[in-house]
Specification:
The complex is a heterodimer. Chain A is α/β, with parallel strands linked by helices. Chain A is 43% helix and 16% strand. Chain A contains 14 helices and 8 strands. In chain A, helix 1 crosses helix 13. Chain B has 2 domains: 70 residues, 2-Layer Sandwich (Alpha-Beta Plaits), CATH 3.30.70.260; 106 residues, 3 Solenoid (Pectate Lyase C-like), CATH 2.160.20. In chain B, the strands form 3 sheets. A 6-stranded mixed β-sheet of chain B has the order 4-6-8-10-13-14, with no helix packed on it. The chains are: A alpha/beta, B alpha/beta.
Chain lengths: 271, 231
């Protein structure tokens, strides 16, 4: 039974694309057949994060318009044979997406894959609406700061009212993924704590991804963080989150503050 | 300035309309027929009350006196005769019901009289047992709103009556919007962005810091919005 998961947030720059790539790769590594779909028409990034930007020939819009078929547009990952990408068009904008077109493609992908992970654009307009439209589940990405949390709250309200499932009276299962979490800064009151975020959003927690240079490093070399350095703290947190998405019960690890006197001093100075 | 400016008299308007009436067709002997009517009335008393009845005399040949007698007999039984048909016009006097013609058959559904539908009083409260998310606006001018969850920052609750929030009130709450000065806003934990009662408002900055995060009620004293802890 294929599952359509939308990775969404409302606010931009919180880590939707990074999380889409990392979760997609982690699920594929566990043997699931996964396609990651870029809905950010006009501002596509998912191809870069996956290192597939030089192999894009056809895109989502071409398939919607019937210029190409789905098999021509899907790009298989070079490292994971179970991971595929459906890229967005960079030359068009979100108005090129239609509800019927998206519905048709999602329906077709459902027959071919176990997981269809939709990378939503930021905002609450057409692109974001269509990315969540056919979702069965949602990963709401939020940074531990007030503007991101409020935008996520808005998106959760929309997941509960604007999706096909919501209109049928069924619920879209929602998961909260807190990214860029810095324990030391949260302890100093410079960030919201996990408890604050959960209190406001009242949504089950899927994972806590620590703030880390590893994430940026992986993006720059075009590799999902879960593949680039599987032992890094963010990679392990994403793998745990992917397992929870598959239904496993794994105790939640709140990233520990950096140890060592030097690190602590340097960390404080940097902050 | 009450001169009438040449108004033409409006033409007198007459409209046609048709109604359904019960038709009674007496047969001879009239006394037996009246006994049958009595039996029917006993079975369902009140069935014909207030309903128009037309007397069809085509099956009998009655004199003017006999017709008058029959109409009187029926009226004793609370049957009001609307008209008479099937008889020569010369046999009717002006005090009798008028002659009717051109009646058509129709089916009268033999339904029991419809039960009086009690006008349901409109619900004067709205219950929300979920969280009200940022960007959502709940408007209920008819009465109170109760929210079992929290009201998020950027959400809006607008009620004609009072507002009760059993979670944290982080958004905007406007009570008594239709001039209800006695409306109040209750919340388990107050972190509201805006509180208003009948247009008198307080912004978040004006909320007493000692009451912040605590259970409170908000009410109107004259034209001053007051916040007091709920204990």
């Amino acid at each position: 039974m294929a599952k359509v998961v939308v990775v969404t947030s409302g606010k931009g720059g919180v880590g939707k694309t990074t999380s889409t790539a990392a979760l997609g790769a982690a699920l594929a590594q566990m043997g699931e057949k996964v396609v990651v779909v870029d809905f950010d028409v006009g501002l596509r990034n998912l191809d870069l994060v996956l290192g597939a930007e030089r192999r894009v020939v056809f895109d989502f819009i071409n398939v919607v318009q019937g210029i190409a078929n789905l098999s021509q547009a899907l790009i298989r990952d070079k490292r994971l044979e179970n991971l595929w990408l459906l890229p967005a068009s960079q030359t068009r904008d979100k108005d090129a997406l239609t509800e019927e077109g998206v519905g048709k493609i999602i329906g077709e992908l459902r027959t071919r894959f176990d997981w269809i992970i939709c990378d939503s654009p930021a905002g609450i307009e057409r692109g974001a609406m269509l990315a969540m439209r056919y979702a069965d589940e949602a990963v709401v990405v939020s940074n531990p700061e007030v503007s991101s949390v409020r935008d996520s709250d808005r998106i959760i309200g929309m997941l509960d009212s604007k999706t096909v499932r919501a209109e049928k009276g069924e619920a879209v299962q929602k998961h909260l993924l807190i990214t860029r979490f810095d324990t030391a800064r949260a302890a100093r009151g410079e960030m919201l704590t996990i408890e604050d975020v959960l209190d406001i959003l009242a949504t089950p927690l899927l994972g806590i991804i620590p703030e880390s240079q590893d994430v940026l490093r992986a993006s720059n070399v075009g590799s999902p963080v879960t593949l680039n350095d599987a032992n890094s703290a963010p990679a392990r947190a994403y793998v745990d989150a992917a397992r929870r998405l598959m239904g496993a019960t794994i105790p939640m690890m709140v990233p520990a503050a950096r140890k060592g006197l030097m690190n602590r001093l340097l960390g404080r100075r940097a902050a | 300035m009450d001169a009438v400016v040449g108004t033409k008299p409006k033409p007198f308007r007459i409209r046609g309309r048709s109604y359904v009436a019960f038709v009674f067709s007496p047969v001879v002997p009239i006394l037996d027929w009246l006994a049958e009517v009595d039996a029917a009335l006993r079975q369902s008393p009140g069935f014909f009350v207030g309903k128009p009845v037309v007397l069809d005399l085509s099956a009998v040949d009655l004199s003017q006196n006999a017709i008058a007698q029959l109409v009187a007999n029926l009226e004793q039984r609370d049957l009001r005769i609307l008209g008479i048909e099937g008889v020569d016009a010369t046999r009717l006097t002006t005090s009798m019901p008028p002659l009717m013609m051109g009646g058509r058959q129709c089916v009268i559904p033999n339904n029991p009289p419809p039960k009086k539908t009690e006008a349901k009083p409109k619900a004067a409260s709205l219950l929300l047992d979920t969280q009200v998310r940022s960007g959502q606006s709940v408007v209920f001018p008819e009465g109170d709103i109760t929210v079992v969850g929290s009201v998020s920052s950027g959400a809006e609750i607008v009620a004609g009556g009072s507002i009760h929030v059993y979670g944290t009130l982080r958004g905007r709450a406007m009570a008594g919007i239709n001039g209800n000065l006695s409306a109040r806003i209750y919340s388990q934990k107050i972190e509201a962005e805006l509180l208003a009662i009948d247009g008198y408002y307080l912004t978040a900055e004006q909320i007493d810091a000692t009451l912040y995060h605590g259970p409170t009620q908000v009410w109107l004293a004259g034209d001053v919005v007051q916040i007091t802890p709920l204990n």
